[in-house]
Amino acid sequence: MATDQEYPLQLRDISLGYTSGGNTKTVASCISASLDRGGLTCLLGPNGAGKSTLLRTLTGLLRPLAGTIEINGSSLESYSSSELSKLVSVVLTDRFNLPDMTARQLVALGRSPYTGFWGRMSDNDEREVDEVMALTGITDLAQRSVDTLSDGERQKVMIAKALAQHTPIILLDEPTAFLDYPSKVETMSLLHTLAAERGKTILLTTHDVEIALQLADRIWMLGNGVFVDGTPEDMMLSGRLAEFFCSSAITFDASTATFRIALPVSERIVTISGSGAAFNLTARALRRTGYRVTETDSAALPEIMATDQGITLNGQPVSSIAELLQKL
Ligand SMILES: Nc1ncnc2c1ncn2[C@@H]1O[C@H](COP(=O)(O)OP(=O)(O)OP(=O)(O)O)[C@@H](O)[C@H]1O
């Protein structure tokens, strides 16, 4: 049984929200959870659910309306900002102007908890900066002015800065938001590796649900004030994931861990048989264009065979799925 000391970050009965002018807006309440050491946790939920609010509360930027947050068994407030900067690094989505600062200089700011009053970088600090820039694939951007970077490039620089800070806990708000698909996967894989191989405790918010389901050790979900957590597989098996994200227009296929757009059911029926990618993609194209696809033989229906050797319609070969759809 894990003791409190073994959880780097623990939430006890947290209520989240905003207070202004004597009015309180509660976003979610009664959240109790903990982050596992050396684990990647992804916080999912629909727009406006409170993901950023929870993340900002964990960083100390917002005070919880109720409850306590503990880091290594001591309350968040008991740490000085200097102590916290060696324990927790944070990547937020805020965009700020940094005229005349290069990408490397921004990453080097991550070393500031260790560089003393004058901010003088040692050889070791320089090496750390080079290493995290290589790790995040931004070495080529080193001398670029931060203000000229694309959103995705800037996002990678901010992640590198957090890594340069060398903290056991890393909190990131939508780190994959502006990235193209391969970069999303690369970034999540990098965070997964940092958790698994370097023992970092990482929490991030994301809308990239399918990537999170493949790479996260744990999923936290927040929606309509309800918070649940568990392994991705338990979330899928229990139907909790579908409860949070599915509607009449979207279904979740737990066996393939993918979301599907629910298409209108059609009276136009085709029979399809075959195997492999050609079979799956042909069936998919038929459903998308309004056919009801059956695998039951019936001589009365257009009959399609799709295998990696080719596609036939009623025994006649067709050269592509486009030609098949045209001839149907
Ligand atoms: N400063 C604020 N004062 C009052 N309400 C706020 C403030 N910031 C956010 N909110 C509200 O709190 C709720 C949660 O917002 P939050 O940004 O945490 O959601 P989110 O899950 O991160 O959303 P998204 O996925 O769209 O980024 C929303 O209703 C939002 O309008």
What attributes does this structure have?
alpha/beta; 328 residues; binds adenosine-5'-triphosphate; 17 strands; S-adenosyl-L-methionine-dependent methyltransferases; globular; Rossmann fold
Structure write-up:
- By secondary structure, the protein is α/β, with parallel strands linked by helices.
- It has two domains: 9-230, P-loop containing nucleotide triphosphate hydrolases (Rossmann fold, 3-Layer(aba) Sandwich); 269-327, S-adenosyl-L-methionine-dependent methyltransferases (3-Layer(aba) Sandwich), CATH 3.40.1630.
- Helix content is 32%, strand content 28%.
- The chain has eleven helices and 17 strands.
- The strands form four sheets. It has a six-stranded mixed β-sheet, sandwiched between helices. Strands 14-13-15-16-17 form a five-stranded mixed β-sheet, with helices on one face. The protein has a four-stranded antiparallel β-sheet with strand order 2-1-4-5, with helices on one face.
- Strand 7 (169-173), helix 6 (181-198) and strand 8 form a beta-alpha-beta unit.
- Helix 4 (123-135) crosses helix 5 (151-164).
- It starts with 8 loop residues before the first strand and ends with a helix.
- The model has no long low-confidence stretch (mean pLDDT 89).
- The structure holds adenosine-5'-triphosphate.
- The site of adenosine-5'-triphosphate (ATP) has 11 residues, from strand 2 and helix 1.
- Residues 9-249 form the ABC transporter domain.
- It is a peripheral membrane protein.
